[in-house]
Amino acid sequence: MQKNKTIKWGIIGLGNIAHKFANELQLVNGAELVAFASRSKENAETFANMYHCAKAYDSYEAIMKDDTVDILYIATPHNSHAELSLLALENNKHVLCEKPIALNYPDAEKMIAASKKHNKFFMEAFWTRFNPSFKATFENVKKGEIGQIHYINADFAFSAKGKNRNRLFDLKLGGGSLMDIGVYPLFLAYTLLGIPEKIHAQSIFHPSGVDAQTAMILQYSDAQAILYSGICHTSNMKATISGSEGRINIDTIWHMAESYTVVKNNTETKYSLPTNGMGYTYEIEECHQCIQNNMIESQLWSHQNSLDLIKIVDEVKKQIGLDFPV
Ligand SMILES: NC(=O)c1ccc[n+]([C@@H]2O[C@H](COP(=O)([O-])OP(=O)(O)OC[C@H]3O[C@@H](n4cnc5c(N)ncnc54)[C@H](OP(=O)(O)O)[C@@H]3O)[C@@H](O)[C@H]2O)c1
User: Fold this and answer.
1) Which residue ranges does the chain devote to CATH 3.30.360.10?
2) Ligand 1 center to residue 114 CA distance, Å?
3) Of 1, 2, 155, 178, which sits with the fewest C-beta atoms within 10 Å of its C-beta?
């Protein structure tokens, strides 16, 4: 694609995150929202009116055939990520698919194979990878600012009760804390320490069959990550990365942080990095840059990164006894 050409976006699945994403698209230069697709005509038209967008499709199949759409953002429940991504790639669309990439590793492999086969950009929407505080933390750790990492601690819990978050308690839709938010602490440990040697995980299950809360220990040769997710109560939502020479605290809410603190030699130094919007803007810019450079994957959150992460998730699922109906 020609550099600096406007990139035309379509959004599939018009719920909570679709609203936030549509808002953030308006903050990015060179992004144009051209179409929405919903299972319901009314919902598609409401979004189209709200965001001054010309096209509102009442089926997901219809938006796939729209040749004006360059990239589709898939914002549906977890169980449909694979099917819709495959359909979009087969219809020659670039794809930004919400996390988790899929319900399991084999499905994720198919999605990535389709991206290669059709030569279309595909990325799991792991927006934290592009968050300025996380990026600075990552770069500091990699250049040895806090020495060798021995310990990571991160939690992510919120109370989903009464928030119209029914999909979170629906096993068929891939609900539960692990798939929805447990992937964030796992992402932190994976990006900083890689694939663990061992994983220990335990959950408490909700009567609906989804994991209400999950505690995970990732064991490395010289480090441990203690991670947690939950959907029935709140938590601090802070992350700590501790090394032999100091530590970095990513401030609450760590996965979308606007600051971080380096603690070293008995001194605390806080760095403020306010985000543009809520911070979805950075993953949008990454999609643009990759598409304009004819890349089918991001170097910052690559196909292999997504495959590694879902492999770790699959191991946690196995340990806690979580299985989604096909
Ligand atoms: N990156 C982030 O910060 C972030 C934050 C929240 C969620 N997410 C991810 O985004 C995805 C959507 O989450 P959400 O919180 O936006 O969910 P949501 O509010 O429930 O919206 C999901 C939308 O998907 C569509 N859908 C298709 N099949 C459905 C089904 N069987 N049941 C319910 N809805 C169905 C619906 O749109 P139509 O009726 O219009 O078709 C629905 O409004 C998930 O993968 C989640 O993990 C990411």
Assistant:
1) 132-274
2) 23
3) 2
Q: How far is the CA of 77 from the centre of ligand 1 (A)?
A: 5
Is the minimum distance from the CB of 43 to ligand 1 under 6 angstroms? yes
* Ligand 1 centroid distance, CA of 17 (Å): 7
Q: What digits encode the pLDDT tens for the residues 24-48?
A: 999 999 999 999 999 999 999 999 9
Is any atom of ligand 1 closer than 6 Å to the C-beta of 14?
Answer: yes
- In CATH terms, the fold of domain 7-127+280-300 is Rossmann fold (3.40.50)
Does pTM surpass 0.90? Answer: yes
Q: What is the pLDDT of residue 54?
A: 84
Q: Is 127 in the pocket of ligand 1 (CB under 6 A)?
A: yes
CATH number of the 132-274 domain: 3.30.360.10
- Give 43's DSSP letter: H
Listed in order, the ranges of the chain carrying CATH 3.40.50.720 are 7-127+280-300
Ligand 1: does its nearest atom lie under 6 Å from the Cβ of 173? Answer: yes
